[in-house]
Each structure stands twice: as structure tokens, then as C-alpha cells.
Amino acid sequence: MGAGVGVVRGHLITLRRFLLTFWRDWKTGKGFSRRGGGALLIDLFHGPKRGQEPTVTQDYRTDGLFTVEYPDERLPVYERYRVLPVLIYDADDGNVRCTACKICAKVCPPQCIWMSQAKSPKGTVLPLPEDFYIDMDVCMNCGLCAEYCPFDAIKMDHNFELSNYERHQSHIFNLQDLLVSSEFYARTHPEAWASADEVSERNRVAKKRTQWLQKVLASAPQKPAESQAPEAAVAK
Ligand code: SF4
Ligand code: SF4
After folding, report:
1. Is residue 117 within 8 Å of residue 129, measured between CB atoms?
2. pLDDT tens for each residue of 139-191
3. Which atom of ligand 2 is nearest to the CA of 140?
4. Confidence of residue 30 (pLDDT cuts 50, 70, 90)
5. How far is the CA of 36 from the centre of ligand 2 (A)?
6. Residue 205's pLDDT band (boundaries 50, 70, 90)?
């Protein structure tokens, strides 16, 4: 058999499958539907609203070519899917859970986390971050920071649509970029949020944090009772 016959035969098989798929879709009335399995008609001018795109999955009922027409269609995002870390604050009292203990920065394999600790006006350190940075281009999405955080403060998020036109400054997320509420986390990770492990972890962390705050407040230098002393002296 001459050289190249196998290649031609392979192409013919592909062409046959390609034509058969379109013919079958045409016959079953799916010719103008989106091909990711959704029932949505192809609309060249008005796609679905952003954030309301249908999610499509390929299962045993999906017939023919399967192309997810992103961004008009999306694959489902599963709860354990992880992209980048976020910092949690409690929605009920606004408490930022992070205590700037720096454990996440120490365990981060590519060393893309750094932070500074907040200080009181008197210069004593406070169990809070003054600022917190993660270089998103260096982060390798391993989730170790979230695993090791003793305060349940850093979690992995699902957002993967992070592209933009500049990567030197806008991809270094600061505290404001990273903060999300516990409500948001509960919404995006309902199973984890309700799990017995997370509930007991939340309670343990809340207790630990209260104890730490009490310790910090107790060790803060006490104000001398000078405000009354001069008055007392004057009175005398
Ligand atoms: S996120 Fe967790 S591990 Fe990292 S500094 Fe804050 S409290 Fe410590
Ligand atoms: S997910 Fe991994 S690489 Fe990214 S910040 Fe956390 S520890 Fe570092």
C-alpha cells in the first residue's frame, strides 16, 4: 500500500463522522441548538446574560459533537475545585479571621504570600494583618495555605476568570482584593460549610481567637491613672 493511504483513510473516517453528526442533528431538529447539550438556540447577537449562562455536562444522553460554547455555556464548577486563596471575614461582626501568624506564608511552596502585622498606636502588635499580599501569577493553587491555617481564615475560591491586560501590579492581590465574607464562602462551598469538621473547627477557632484577644488586651500596657491624679493634686 502506498505511503499516505492510511492518513487519507483516517481523514475520510473523520469526515464521515463529522457529516453524520451534522446530518443527525439536522434531522432531529438540533441543528440550531447549542451543541454543548443545552436546549438554548444559537443566537448570534444576544447571548445569555453574564452570570446566567447555562452549565452543560456530557453524559450518556449527550449525542454527537460536544463543544462547550464558553462563555455562553459553562462546565459546572464543583465545590472542591480550587483556584486561588481568599481571606474570610465573619459576616455577622466583620471580624477578619486572619491573625497575621504567617504560617501560610511559611508553608507556601513558591513563597508567594507576604504580609505585615497591624500595630496599635502604642506600637504593640495586634493579631490582625495590616496588609496581606498574594502574587496570583506565582500561586500554584496547591491549597496548602488553607490546610495549615490554624484560624480557618484562608480558603480556596473557584473564580478562574482573572485575566486582564497587565500582570505586574494587578495580579498581586492585597487585603482588600482577598477579603470575602463567610456568607460568600458558605454559598460557594455549602457542603464544606455544613460539614461537622468545619462546624467544630469554626467553634474551636472562635474560642481560640477570643482567648488570644483577651491575652493581647491583658498584656497591653495599662494607662496610668494620670487623668485623675492632676485633678486630685489641684483639689488638694
Ligand atoms: S491566613 Fe491563617 S495562616 Fe495565614 S497569617 Fe492569617 S491566620 Fe495565619
Ligand atoms: S495555594 Fe499554595 S501556592 Fe497558592 S498561596 Fe496557597 S500555599 Fe501558596
Report:
1. yes
2. 999 999 999 999 899 999 999 998 888 888 889 999 999 999 999 999 999 99
3. 3
4. confident
5. 33
6. confident
Residue type for 56, please?
Answer: V
pLDDT band for 65, please (50, 70, 90 cuts): low
Question: pTM for the full model?
Answer: 0.74
Instruction: Say if ligand 1 is within 6 A of residue 108 CB.
Output: no
**pLDDT value at residue 60:** 76
d(CA 10, CA 13): 5
Residues in the chain: 236
Strand order of the β-sheet with 113-119 is 113-119, 125-135, 172-173
Distance CA 54, CA 39 (A): 9
Which atom of ligand 2 approaches the CA of 107 most closely?
7
Within the chain, which residue ranges are assigned CATH 3.30.70.3270?
Answer: 85-219
Residue of 88, 147, 105 lying closest to 116 (CA atoms): 105
Q: What is the mean pLDDT of residues 39-58?
A: 74
Nearest to 177 by CA among 192, 202, 159, 196: 159
Q: Is 104 in the pocket of ligand 1 (CB under 6 A)?
A: yes
85-219 domain in CATH 3.90.550.10? no
Closest ligand 2 atom, residue 146 Cα = 6
